[in-house]
Amino acid sequence: MGIRGLICIAVGLMLTAAAARAEEVTIVSNVLGPEGPLFVDGNLYFVAWTSGTFSKWDGKTTTVLNSMPGCSHNGLALTRQKTFLVACTDEHGAILELDMKGRQLHRWDADDKGSKFDGGINDIVVTASGGAYATVFGPYQTVPTAVAGKILYLAPGGRQWVEVANDLNYANGIGISPDQKTLYVSETVGNCILKFAVNGDGSLSHRANLALLNLLTPNKNNSWWLGPDSMKIDGMGNIYVAQWFGGKILKIAPDGTLLHVFPIAAGDGTTNVAFGPGGKDLYVTVVKDPNDPQAKGSIVKIPNVE
């Protein structure tokens, strides 16, 4: 192959990369700590931990629905009653229930035994039966020395959260399979996604590793905190997980096989993902620089792949 052929190939690869990036569209800018996107009834709801806000984007305008200093809004889940459960990731931790307009309906600061949510609540998922699981992250340190993550469970119709798993290396994102039989949890410092069997009473068993992210895709850097962040599960049971410090979304099959990598140009601090109508698009919350104490970021839209 001559020089001209090599140049053509190089130009073609550059154009392909440019086209891929052109498909990434920023829809919301200047978000301080973007997380928890959910697309509901034509609106995109999201939270921001640095500004401590819960907001709605209607396709044109962003409206702040809830602002609460000391909460550090992080995870977000929609209940069957069309209310939201919000994870307060402040070190003292709390779980809020808000209505669609952002008004507080309930607040939990401790589990059924009175144990405080020290280390902060990171993420929440609602089950098909109306129950919910939440993760307790653990105390943030530059070099993590504690293995303090937990999983909490709220039974359908229940009013108290119960601890159902512990000794997680900083529990982060959480999701449940379409058949409701498997719970997935991100273990950020371990760079690992765990899976648990869900028992009939909501308790968990058969803990196992589903995927070690460094075996699926090369690490972008060597940070302690480079690992899986929040996740969403599609109707086929595939897991879409954001990799904090990794600048990408990974699509992983229920057996742990890597199906696709979505590189995100807007920043390295990808935190979460939401499905648009019909799952054709993904809405990704991303922090430009994970080392930025303000966590300045945005929400971008990218096309999904089957």
From TrEMBL:
Keywords: Hydrolase, Signal. Pfam families: SGL. It comes from the Bacteria. Residues 1-22 form the signal peptide. InterPro entries: 6-blade_b-propeller_TolB-like (IPR011042), SGL (IPR013658), SMP-30/CGR1_Lactonase (IPR051262). PANTHER family: LACTONASE DRP35, LIPOPROTEIN-RELATED. This is SMP-30/gluconolactonase/LRE family protein. It comes from Eiseniibacteriota bacterium.
